[in-house]
Specification:
single chain; alpha/beta; five-stranded parallel beta sheet; 56% helix; disordered N terminus; binds shikimate-3-phosphate
């Protein structure tokens, strides 16, 4: 069972604005692991920004590209993957993430997320969206995020503190393995 206990990759999931990219980048610095930002990879492969993909081809096409990007990640030990907030919506994505490593949910309350999302610039599902609609999207996704093996509070403290909490939680999980 050694391979499963190795946590070859760590997938950060959670709603927009929770800090997946920031915490991911700190985790990469702290551990020396490679960071992959899934949205950056999707945009790079498409030759378009995320809003441009939504504009030209719609959300369904973005989701297809998101799954393709996830599936294309080479098996590599010690990698941190910061995902987009909607990655939890497809069963196939769960299969891919679970096969490659551990899924960590960064959790925060709605009011914190709302504040961090702000005008939603660069986030097609948030920009110009009614707050009530965005909140309802968050509520619909909560049970999906909670499927993660590891749940870390990203509400309080600095991003560094959240990153440390992730490492502690992973180590605890390893200890239980
Ligand atoms: C999305 C979140 C975005 C990005 C895309 C869709 C979502 O990523 O993947 O705009 O469905 O919640 P962030 O969570 O990094 O903002």
């Amino acid at each position: 069972m050694a391979a499963e206990e190795d946590f070859s990759s760590l997938f950060l999931v959670g709603f927009m604005g929770v800090g997946k990219s920031t915490v991911g980048s700190l985790l990469a610095q702290m551990t020396g692991a490679e960071l992959i930002d899934l949205d950056t990879l999707i945009a790079h492969r498409a030759g378009m920004s995320i809003p441009e993909i939504f504009d030209c081809c719609g959300e369904a096409e973005f989701r297809r590209q998101e799954t393709a990007a996830l599936a294309s990640l080479p098996a590599m030990p010690g990698r941190i993957v910061a995902t987009g907030g909607g990655v939890v919506g497809r069963e196939e994505n769960w299969t891919l993430m679970r096969r490659a490593g551990v899924v960590v949910y960064l959790r925060a309350d709605w009011h914190t997320l709302e504040e961090r999302i702000g005008s939603g610039e660069g986030r097609p599902l948030a920009a110009g969206a009614e707050r009530a609609r965005l909140r309802s999207l968050w509520e619909q996704r909560l049970p999906l995020y909670e499927r993660a093996e590891v749940i870390v509070d990203a509400e309080a403290g600095s991003p560094e503190a959240v990153a440390r909490r992730v490492l502690e939680a992973i180590n605890r999980q390893k200890g239980q393995g």
